[in-house]
């Protein structure tokens, strides 16, 4: 079982980057996502196979994808979703078609503004995530529901299995 680690109260960047790790990095391998405090507990670090939007380190070969200092001087220059997506492209995964999702996640995470982001807050991934957060307290439930929505909307090309967690 692969363990993907991200932070509690996951925002869209945490959720989309964890989903990319599950469905496109580990793909056929069973994996689960754990939600922990920003200061990653040592025990969790020991079992971690991939960190997204947490850990303050960017080492793609070690599957560490955070954009916060000291990984990047300016946390708003990129986001976890963009970092893992770029890595997946480099290793030849079929993820180019997800660019609009990555872009709108990046814009939301780094306080940019655009028509796409306004639209996302109206009826796209940002809207869906706030709806889920209003209805569910547990991060794992929010994540599970959001992944269902992402798979339905952005259909994984290679993957239609149900979640293994
Ligand atoms: Mn982020």
Characteristics of this structure?
165 residues; alpha/beta; 5-stranded mixed beta sheet; 5 strands; 12% strand; globular; binds manganese (II) ion
Written overview of the protein:
The protein has 165 residues and is an alpha/beta fold. The chain has one domain. Helices cover 47% and strands 12% of the residues. It contains 7 helices and 5 strands, in the order βαβαβββααααα. The protein has helices spanning 12-25, 42-47, 80-90, 99-109, 115-123, 125-135, 139-154; strands spanning 2-7, 31-36, 50-52, 58-59, 64-65. It has a 5-stranded mixed beta sheet with strand order 2-1-3-5-4. The relative contact order is 0.17. The chain binds manganese (II) ion. The site of manganese (II) ion (MN) has 6 residues, from loops.
Could you outline the blueprint of secondary structure elements for this entry?
Blueprint: E1 2-7, H1 12-25, E2 31-36, H2 42-47, E3 50-52, E4 58-59, E5 64-65, H3 80-90, H4 99-109, H5 115-123, H6 125-135, H7 139-154
Parallel strand pairs: 1-2, 1-3, 3-5
Antiparallel strand pairs: 4-5
How would you summarize this macromolecular structure in one to three sentences?
This protein is an alpha/beta fold. Helices cover 47% and strands 12% of the residues. Manganese (II) ion (MN) binds at residues 13, 53, 67, 79-80, 109.
For the secondary structure, the number of strands is 5
> Which stretches are poorly predicted, pLDDT < 50 over at least 5 residues?
159-165
- What structural class do the secondary elements suggest? alpha/beta
Q: How is the biggest beta sheet arranged?
A: 5 strands, mixed
Strand content: 5-15%
> If you average the pLDDT, what whole number results?
93
Q: How many separate structural domains?
A: 1
Bound molecules: manganese (II) ion
What general outline do the C-alpha atoms trace?
A: globular
